[in-house]
Design brief:
With about 725 residues, the chain is of the alpha/beta class. The protein folds into 5 domains: about 120 residues, Arc Repressor Mutant, subunit A (Orthogonal Bundle), CATH 1.10.10; about 110 residues, Winged helix-like DNA-binding domain superfamily/Winged helix DNA-binding domain (Arc Repressor Mutant, subunit A); about 150 residues, no CATH class; about 180 residues, Rossmann fold, CATH 3.40.50; about 100 residues. Strands 7, 8, 9, 10, 11, 12 and 13 form a 7-stranded mixed beta sheet that branches.
């Protein structure tokens, strides 16, 4: 007998079940495990066929047991029931309540329900400064009982957030059920820590003690898995989560085996899933039936991948309803539509869109950069089907501003123009602004086109950072981000790491590379640049970690350091470019390891070589300043034997240097200290050899010799 065939006048007798449970616990005089308590209730009460039937097509748990399990949270809120590691235990208040209420238990049910609602209101008031997802997660965890488990993805979906945020929440919550949250493969999460520091048992040991069955692969039994859909309904019933007339969904289609399906979706009015191995199935199929099919049809796929497929297929086939909002992204745009038809199985010729739903798409998209942060955050969840009901209000406002695509607006067979990723050529104007040769600058562009990582290296003051920034802005506009490495810089600073938040606890925060990548994914035809200043001052192996591999193999997935079991891997988009700068006075280029040399193109900027050698002279001439300072720099660099310590022109390309006394001050406070550090301990008289007066005297001698036609032989290297 199922819910569909049972009369509505045969309800689950919740009040009777509650009284029976309390009486059994009172008679026992000791804690009873949840399963044992349920068994004794089923022996005491003659259950109806309706109560014995599964409460949903996603679970074998009978209706009466599901209702009683949820009622136990009311009893706990009323302080009538304690849930201890040893089992359920009636309290003294519970005994009093049992004695004071009628035999049918109606009063018990009403009073316990009031207690729960009051506790919920109090908790909501106490946590009003926290994100709404925290309140939902706290409530959802209450209903994961002994002998059950759930996943980060399950909780993320019911709370409208992502698994990483759930992971952060789990790291700070003191919930008694925190250990019942596992990875998507049903395995304990590495690094699990008890809120109760006195506990010495492992997460797995605690679960097995509660009755969770673990198979040979160390995965918890799927039969004991509490699903998101179940929590959602119950949370709505208890008033914790708002009941919404419709839902919103993200369905991805911009990268299906290298194809962007979004133009076809919008032109022909549908959304789809690949489902290339899935046999023909009907809309509304039950989860358990679908699971058996997925297990068989995708038998060669990993456990986690099959679980992800099951969730996506079930959502698309059974949870998405006509009237729901669907969103998708492509080429930096967000597109919205309304579901207008049931799920259909179509044997598409290319196998890229077997499962389809009719969708009425809005006429125009929205630029990704203009979206609200809540929407952007949810779009980062890397699954093909993601619920976005928490963002429904925001999406409805966007949709209301749009008209729909009609056949008159855009013919179905109209060609789709997709922009390709390109880098513009160097221009004469850019070369002139940098005082370098355009041919040299174009070579840098060509190197980036061939290999998207480049390093400018050379002594201090050669304009490495300035050129890197100017070139990046020319190639990518405002899509440029700069970061500076130093010895204490880490992977967490560069890519992502946990950081404290004002509300308490920690949250996984993105670093400059992660931010650049996230932005680049939404606009694959647009270049994005990350400039790493002083790249050789950091420990590159430590900073890049597993990402070092992606610099050479961008299309391949790697598992991230802080990845959850739900993550499907990380790739580095082709439109992310990296320009590093390396000061050879800090660390010689000769010390760079082979791995880095293989991943970057190296471009020297040396004071004695083009394009740097003539920069100062050209800048002085263009600025109508005395060009003689260029002669001083050339003579200074002739005296410096170590090429990595020669002085770049940037020190002299500041207006202050050309004010009265400016040159002397710059020489005394910037040039000489560098050279003193270089010659520290070797006995060199730095001021005698490199002082401004000595350099001026030698340049005057050389100029006089030139005027007389006598060079006086080879220029001396010392005064």
């Amino acid at each position: 007998m199922t819910a569909e065939t049972t009369s509505d006048n045969e309800p689950v007798r919740r009040a009777l079940l509650i009284r029976a449970l309390l009486q059994i616990l009172a008679d026992a005089g000791m804690p009873l495990k949840r399963g044992e308590a349920m068994r004794r209730v089923s022996q005491r009460i003659q259950l109806t066929p309706y109560e014995l039937a599964p409460y949903s097509d996603r679970s074998e748990e009978p209706r009466w047991e599901n209702h009683l399990a949820w009622a136990s949270t009311d009893l706990k809120a009323a302080n009538w029931l304690e849930k201890t590691p040893s089992g359920w235990l009636i309290t003294d208040d519970g005994r009093v309540a049992l004695a004071n209420h009628p035999e049918d238990g109606t009063g018990l049910d009403v009073e316990a329900g009031k207690a729960y609602r009051e506790a919920h209101r109090t908790r909501r008031g106490e946590t009003k400064t926290q994100p709404d997802y925290a309140r939902l997660l706290e409530a959802a965890l209450e209903f994961v009982e002994e002998g059950q488990w759930t996943t980060y993805s399950d909780l993320a979906a019911v709370a409208g957030t992502n698994p990483q945020t759930v992971g952060t929440f789990m790291g700070v919550t003191a919930s008694a059920g925190a250990h019942r949250v596992l990875g998507k493969d049903g395995r304990p999460v590495p690094g699990f820590v008890w809120a109760d520091k006195s506990r010495t048992d492992t997460q797995r040991e605690a679960l097995e003690a509660e009755g969770v069955r673990v198979d040979a692969s160390r995965s918890a039994s799927e039969e004991q898995h509490v699903r998101t859909e179940d929590r959602r309904v119950n949370l709505e019933e208890r008033g914790v989560r708002e009941v919404l007339p419709k839902r919103a969904w993200l369905v991805r289609g911009s990268s299906v085996d290298g194809h962007d399906l979004i133009p076809a979706w919008r032109q022909k009015g549908y959304a789809s899933l690949r489902a290339s191995k899935l046999r023909e199935v009907e809309e509304g199929i039950g989860r358990q039936e679908l699971k058996a099919i997925v297990d068989e049809d995708y038998s060669q796929t990993s456990y986690a991948a099959k679980a992800a497929k099951l969730d996506e297929f079930h959502s698309f086939l059974s949870r998405i309803q006509v009237g729901d909002i669907v969103v998708t992204t492509s080429q930096g745009e967000l597109y919205l539509g309304t579901v207008t038809g049931p799920a259909e199985y179509v044997k598409s010729a290319d196998g890229l869109s077997n499962l389809r739903r009719a969708v009425e798409w809005a006429k125009q998209g929205f630029d990704y950069g203009d979206l609200a942060s809540e929407i952007k955050a949810r779009l980062q969840v890397q699954y093909d089907v993601v619920e976005m009901t928490q963002q429904l209000d925001l999406l409805e406002k966007l949709l209301a501003a749009q008209t729909t695509v009609t056949e008159d607006d855009e013919p179905p067979d109209a060609p789709v123009v997709v922009r390709e990723l390109t880098l513009p050529d160097a221009t004469d104007a850019l070369a002139e602004s940098l005082n370098v040769d355009r041919v040299w600058l174009q070579e840098c562009v060509d190197l980036l086109r061939d290999r998207p990582q480049l390093i400018f290296y050379g002594p201090p003051g050669t304009g490495k950072t300035y050129i890197a920034q100017a070139l990046a802005r020319h190639l990518a506009g405002d899509n440029v981000r700069l970061v500076q490495f130093h010895p204490a810089y880490s992977y967490e600073d560069f890519f992502e790491g946990y950081r404290p938040v004002k509300e308490g606890g920690f949250e996984l925060k993105p670093g400059p590379l992660r931010k650049t990548v996230d932005a680049a994914r939404e606009s694959p035809s647009t270049p994005y640049f990350l400039i790493i200043d002083e790249i050789n001052r950091g420990n590159l192996a430590k900073i890049f970690g597993e990402l070092y591999f992606l610099l050479e193999y961008r299309s391949q997935n790697v598992d991230l350091l802080y990845a959850t079991d739900d993550d499907i891997g990380f790739t580095l988009p082709e439109n992310v470019f990296i320009i590093g700068t390396m000061n050879t006075a800090d660390r010689s280029i000769a010390l760079v390891d082979a791995a880095m040399r293989r991943r970057f193109a190296f471009v020297p900027l040396h004071p004695s070589e083009p394009p740097t050698s003539g920069v100062l002279r050209r800048w002085l001439a263009a600025s109508d300043l005395e060009v003689g300072i260029a002669d001083l720099l050339e003579e200074l660099n002739r005296r410096i034997e170590d090429p990595d310590f020669k002085i770049g022109p940037s020190y002299f390309m500041r207006k202050a240097v050309h004010q009265p006394g400016g040159l002397e001050r710059a020489w005394r406070t910037a040039i000489l200290p560098l050279l003193e550090e270089h010659h520290y301990g070797d006995g060199t008289d730095v001021r005698a050899k490199y002082g401004l007066d000595a350099i001026r005297a030698r340049v005057a001698v050389l100029k006089a010799s030139e005027r007389s036609g006598d060079t006086g032989g080879k220029p001396a290297d010392s005064a």
